[in-house]
Structures are given as C-alpha cells and as structure tokens.
Amino acid sequence: MILSFLLLFITAVQHHGSSAESSHGNKFQHSSMKEQNGVQDSQHEKVLTVAGEGTVHSPNFPRTYPRNTVLVWRLVAANENARIQLTFDERFGLEDPEDGICKYDFVEIEEPSDGAILGRFCGSQAAPGTQVSKGSQIRIRFTSDEYFPAEPGFCIRYSLLPVKVPEPEIPVVVPPSLQSVDVLSEAVSGFSTVEEVMKYLEPDRWKLDMEDLYKPTWHVLGKSFIHSKKSRGGTDLNLLKEEVRLYSCTPRNFSVSLREELKRTDSIFWPTCLLVKRCGGNCGCCHRCYNCQCTPTKVAKKYHEVLLLRYSRAGRGLQKSLTDVALEHHEECSCVCKDDADG
Ligand SMILES: *[C@@H]1O[C@H](CO)[C@@H](O)[C@H](O)[C@H]1NC(C)=O
Predict the structure, then answer these.
(1) Would you call 201 helix, strand, or coil by DSSP?
(2) Cα–Cα 20 to 30 A to 50, which of 86, 128, 176, 223?
(3) Which residues have CB under 8 Å from 194's CB, separation 6+?
(4) What is the fold of 38-161?
(5) Other CB atoms closer than 10 Å to residue 194's CB: what's the count?
(6) How far apart are CA 5 and CA 7, in angstroms?
(7) How far apart are CA 232 and CA 241, in angstroms?
(8) Distance, CA 253 to ligand 1 centroid (Å)?
(9) Half-sphere exposure (Cβ direction) of 213: Cα atoms closer than 13 Å
C-alpha cells in the first residue's frame, strides 16, 4: 500500500517536473511513449447514426477512466438537415488543465467537415455548456495520457434538434401590371418570343391571352393581316424579333486591308484584304443609354497564310514568300453603354 503511494508520488513529480523544465521535452516524451504503448489510431472513429437521443461517455463512467486512451465518435444525423445537440452530464471530471490549457486528458468537440475544434474541455470545475453541430455531423474525441486519470470522466447526451425548414424568402416582386413603363419595357425587351412575354405578364392566364391576341376580330386588325391573309394573326412577331437580333450588334464579315491592319507599309500582301469577323450593327435597343456601342466581348487571333512581296534591302529585286499573318476576329459582341465614359 505504502509502496504504491510512493510510486504514484514519484510519477507525479516526474510528470510535473519535466513539464516545468521543458515543455518541448515533455511533449516529445508523451508522444514517443504513446507510440510505444500503441495507443489507438486517433483516426479510428466509431460512427453513430443519430435518429433520436443517446449517450457517449468515457470508459467506466462515472468511475475513473483508463489511461492512454483515445476514443473518437462521429455522430451523423439521420436527417441531413438536422443539427445535433450535445449536453454534458453535470458529473464531469478530467485531469486539470495546466496554465489554463487542457493538455493531458480532455474531451474535444470537432466539426468533421474541416476539423475545426469547437471546444476542448478538461478539469472538474463545471460541466461544459451545450454544444450544437454546425452541419449534420459532429465529432467527439476523448484523449487520456499515461498519468492521473480522474473521475468521473464525462457523459454526453446527444439529441437531434428539430429540422429547421428554411422559410422561403418571398421576393418583393411588383406585379407587371403595377410596374412603370420604363421598368416594364426593359423587362419585356429581354424575352425572345411572344409566349415568354405573355407568360411574364399573365402567369395564370397567358394561354387565353395568346388566343385572344390571334383572334381575327376585324376592327383591331393591322394592315399586315389583311394583306398577308394568314390564318393565325398578322405577322410572326417572333421572327421579327429574331431578325432584329441577327442584324444588331453581332460579329459579322468585314474586309480589312492587311497593310493597314498590320501597319506594314513596306510590304505588299496578296490578297490585299482579308475577311475577318468584327462587331457590327447598331445598338438601338439599349435601355436608358444615350451612347450605346457595339463592343467586342470575346476576341480571338487567327492566322491566315498570304503571299508577301517585299523589296530586299540588298537591292536584289522583289522577294516573294508565303507568310502567316495574325488577325483579330471578334467572336462575341454586346451593346455597352458608354454614357459614363463620355460624361
Ligand atoms: C461571312 O463569310 C463567310 C465566309 O464566306 C460565310 O460563310 C458567312 O455566311 C458570312 N456571314 C455573313 C453573316 O454574311
């Protein structure tokens, strides 16, 4: 009996003595001993599916837990949208912290997705407060070293927090019929078919409106209907819209002079001009903009093989060779408002 007390006293002195001398040495000693003792791999975790309530506790709770132990539990909520709540039993006691830091025996709560430590607890002053997972999982890690196991250890009751149903955010949408002419005009201009426009204006009865639109009531018919005598309405509005799109501000065929484009006044090229894609067409449908310009938004360099004629410096007449010239092609264009740039 006396002998075992003496032994405990000696180990106690070693424990605190070495940490006072050199914390680095102490750490190293700890880890090397752990390796020798073959403490469980800390990555080896027990996965628990949480559908209701349950508990996780240190071995032998509420009696003294064993030394040299690492235990990891990963709690996974059965419902992905649920959160897990951890409540510590009032009876709580692990080896005391040193300098306010839990270094030896402790229980840690971790966020599994990024390994962030939500809390590390030890000592025996007060049981830790309630913890709640960030996502649908949470990890509990218990570590004890080779000295001073305490009692009672810890016991954590886990439970599912009720699923939070995100309240659908009701966007503040002004119904089209209440919008100003400017706002409505801009919204409507974005659609490419009559159907889309009607759906936007009357989500509930747009089909009826479409039918009404094409009903040949003679007194509202335009001249185009009388002339074209189509069975269903006058003009194909969708086609008109598409035509405008095709011919306003798009990459189109342009001829460029190679001498001018390449600034090579010493050379003659054949062909003299090449066909390139450049942004062209107007931007008449720009909204609330006085100076709207058709501007390239995607440019590519393409190589073209041409005949190059050049007088040699040595005066040996005309050199003729094939050469590659790089020309810019505009692949995408869009109407950009330059009001600010001017102002
Ligand atoms: C541009 O030129 C190419 C090559 O000759 C031709 O295939 C294409 O149809 C032309 N595009 C337009 C919009 O005229």
Answers:
(1) helix
(2) 128
(3) 210, 213, 237, 238
(4) Jelly Rolls (2.60.120)
(5) 18
(6) 5
(7) 18
(8) 6
(9) 14
Q: What pLDDT score does 153 carry?
A: 94
Cα 334 to middle of ligand 1, angstroms = 20
For CATH 2.60.120.290, the residue range(s) in the chain are: 38-161
Nearest CA to ligand 1 atom 3: 253
What whole-number distance in Å separates Cα of residue 115 and Cα of residue 216? 70
Q: Out of 249, 253, 254, 327, give the residue to mutate to test ligand 1, the one with the largest number of ligand atoms within 8 Å of its CB.
A: 253
Ligand 1 atom 13, closest CA: 252
Token pair for residue 189? Answer: 């201009």
Ligand 1 lining (C-beta closer than 6 Å):
252-253, 275
Instruction: Measure the CA–CA gap between 150 and 142, rounded to whole angstroms.
Output: 13
Q: Which atom of ligand 1 is nearest to the CA of 252?
A: 13
Q: What is the pLDDT of residue 27?
A: 38
**pTM of the predicted protein model:** 0.44
Q: Look at residue 341 in the predicted model and tell me its pLDDT.
A: 57
The residues pairing with 270 across neighbouring beta strands, listed in sequence order, are 307
Q: Which atom of ligand 1 is nearest to the CA of 277?
A: 1
Q: What is the mean pLDDT of each run of 10 residues along the chain (343 residues)?
A: 50 43 38 38 78 92 92 91 91 89 91 87 90 91 91 93 71 76 85 88 86 68 53 70 88 94 89 95 85 94 93 81 93 88 49
pLDDT of residue 159: 92
- 3-state SS, residue 100: coil
Residue among 204, 85, 97 at smallest CA distance from 136: 85
